Amino acid sequence: METSKNHSIPIPFNEKERLDALHSYQIINTTPEEKFDSLTQIAAYICDSPIVLISLIDTNRLWFKSKIGMNVSGIPRDISFCQYTIIQDEIFEIENALNDEKFQNNPFVLGPPYIRFYAGTPLKTPEGFNVGTLCVFDTEPKRLDSRQKMTLKVLSNQIIANFELIKKNRELVSVHEKKEELQKSKSQFFANMSHEIRTPVHGILGITSLLSETKLQPEQKEYVDIIRRNGNLLLSLLNDILDFSKLESSHMKIEIIAFDLMDLLKDVFYLFETDAKRKNLEFKMVGDTLSSLIVSTDPNRLKQILVNLISNAFKFTEKGSVSIEFEFDIKSDSKQCDIRIRVKDTGIGIPEQKLKELFQAYSQMDTSVSRKYGGTGLGLAISKGLAEMMNLKLTAQSVINRGSVFEISGRIPLAERSEVNFEPKKPNPDTNGASVQDLRILVAEDNEINQMLIKKVLEKLGYKPVIVSNGIEALHHIETKGADVFFLDIQMPELSGIETAKILTQHTNQSIRPYIIAMTANASPEDKEDCLASGINEYISKPFRKEEIADLLNHFIARKNSKT
Predict the structure, then answer these.
(1) Where are residues bearing 4-aspartylphosphate located in the sequence (predicted)?
(2) Distance between CA atoms of 524 and 195, rounded to whole angstroms?
(3) 406: closest CA among 342, 356, 346, 355?
(4) Closest of 410, 501, 482, 412 to residue 442, by C-alpha
(5) How far is residue 259's CA from residue 271's CA, in Å, rounded to a whole number?
(6) 135 vs 140, 157, 160, 195, CA distance in Å?
(7) C-alpha torsion sign, points 346, 351, 356, 361
(8) What is the CATH number of the domain that holds 331?
(9) Residue 484 maps to a domain
(10) In this structure, are residues 537 and 517 in contact, taking their beta carbons and an 8 Å threshold?
(11) What residues form DSSP beta bridges with 236?
């Protein structure tokens, strides 16, 4: 409302801080809200007043968050009643404006709506700043009783409580968005790191593999083996960091498919036979003699857990044995199975006080163990997280100097053998030499070492590849000379692998379109999805093995021959 121009405008002593508090709510100029309108309706009813306002007092104006009996959104501050309310902590009341020299010449007193009565209580923040008012007006002189005044104060507290809730919710959303942004940046950083590390590791392991196929002296073979093992260790550490980052950000995905659990256990067992011989340890499988057990969960993640547990068992066991023990209890309805898979060793054991924190990230027994055996301390935390995502439990028991037992347990669905996606047997490349010679292979790869590596691998398999350095050169070659199989790096200058694939699939004649195989250091499931969505037929992550390349090409040749 208004004051006479003859009176100076009262300014609270903490005006700057008061305005900061007001602006922190970010309420001014927002749309009407029922939670505030209901409070003005209560005030109108209790105080029997035709005009009620929730006013917020800015530098030069009053803005109404909620209003009854007024058709404007705000008025200038220097002609308001409320400017006096915020300089005190109690209700400011004018019984008859015509008898008050500050308001008797006010236009709203002398003209419509002919205000006579005003009462306002400050909206006080928890920090003590009066950012506005809850006020009532009438066209007749009167005064509020104690019950009405108390109601105004209670309602003003509720208004501030709503302001605070809005502010806290906004801050929580902001924190969540910042966390999401930080996590996105973190994920992008790890993805970039993965690519930058995988690229040289791919070169190291690939060249090492080629070296191992040449005539080497025993000492040279030993050196090559050291390079290979350390390259694989670096790759393993990188994978641990990436997996833990995904678990932390809830971006880890589980792929539920049908598979033969017995085959998986055998595959894992065969992986470690060489380690057992190298360390002269007894290594055995003990359990139910089932020829097969078809279940439905994520075989790759279950294998990852088992590989981690068995790898740890061999790492921490110098003498004695390592074993994989398993029990299966098929339920009477034949739709579910309780599984228990234990990895036992006779190694150094784990102190009892360390067992409680064993599955925490970065947890290791002590610095001396860390120095001797290495590792990130992430493997068990990742394994437990993956187990929980599959509704399985991972537990541990251990006795110092006697060994440890890690157990995966839980109930998983059974599946039908018909649901298993069996890979067709791929032909031996030696039996299909003519097809090998006829196959036109194009490789787009910008890294010179990787160019040399893939060229050598393909030549050893009997192929004569053409190598180009980017997507533009690849598209020109396909258009002018054609290709049957196109190995495509994803992260390239000029034109990325994804962009190249999209152009091929969208604009190239189907009859000349090659079979596209992505070979990339971008190794996440999301990267694979992006590749396949762009029209790429197959995906292989770096570092890859010669056998993987051979399998992909043999599979392509077999399919091609079956159509002719």
Answers:
(1) 489
(2) 10
(3) 342
(4) 482
(5) 18
(6) 15, 13, 14, 64
(7) negative
(8) 3.30.565.10
(9) yes
(10) yes
(11) none
* Length in residues, the chain: 564
Average pLDDT, the chain: 87
The CA-to-CA distance between both ends of the chain, in Å, stands at 91
pLDDT tens-digit profile of 44-89? 999 999 999 999 999 999 999 999 999 999 999 989 999 999 999 9
For residues 298-305, give the mean pLDDT. Answer: 92
Query: Within 13 Å and on the Cβ side, how many CA atoms surround 110?
Result: 10
Report the alpha-carbon distance of residue 453 to residue 203 in Å, rounded: 7
Single out the residue in 138, 173, 208 at which a domain terminates: 173
Q: Are strands 282-287 and 321-330 parallel, antiparallel or unpaired?
A: parallel
- The predicted pLDDT at position 399 comes to 92
DSSP track, 191-258: HHHHHHHHHHHHHHHHHHHHHHTS---HHHHHHHHHHHHHHHHHHHHHHHHHHHHHHHTT------EE
Q: Where are the alpha helices (DSSP H) in 336-488?
A: 352-355, 367-373, 379-389, 433-438, 448-460, 471-480
CATH label of the domain that carries residue 231: 1.10.287.130
pLDDT at 424 over 50: no
Q: Is 266 helix (H, G, I), strand (E, B) or coil?
A: helix
Kindly give the residue spans of alpha helices, DSSP state H, lying in 411-523: 433-438, 448-460, 471-480, 497-507
Range of the domain at 80: 15-173
Please say if the pLDDT value at position 365 is more than 60: no
What's the farthest any 2 CA atoms get from each other in the chain?
A: 113
Residues 388 and 345 in one domain: yes
Verify that 408 and 445 share a domain, yes or no.
no
Query: 104 in a domain, yes or no?
Result: yes
CA nearest to 260, candidates 376, 476, 143, 423: 423
How many separate helices (H) and strands (E) can be counted in the chain? 18, 18
Q: In whole angstroms, give the CA distance from residue 243 to residue 247.
A: 6
Take residue 223 and report the two structure tokens written for it. 């050196």
Contacts of the segment 170-176: beta carbons below 8 A, 24+ positions apart: 170/26
Can you say whether the dihedral through the CA atoms of 232, 233, 236, 241 is positive or negative?
negative
One domain for residues 95 and 211? no
Phi first, then psi: give them for residue 477, nearest 5 degrees: -65, -45
Q: Which two tokens stand for residue 518?
A: 């992505």
Alpha-helix runs per DSSP H in 249-324: 261-271, 273-279, 299-315
Residue 3 — very low, low, confident or very high, per pLDDT cuts 50/70/90?
Answer: very low
pLDDT at 20 over 90: yes
Paired tokens of 387:
């187990």
Higher pLDDT, 229 or 462: 462
β-sheet bridge partners, residue 540? 519
CA atoms within 13 A of residue 122's CA, in its CB half-sphere? 19
Residue 8 covered by a domain: no
Decide if 179 is inside a domain: no
CA distances, 349 to each of 283, 352, 365, 432, 525 (Å): 18, 9, 10, 52, 35
Write the CB contacts of 293 (distance below 8 Å, at least 6 apart in sequence). Answer: 260, 261, 262, 328, 337, 414
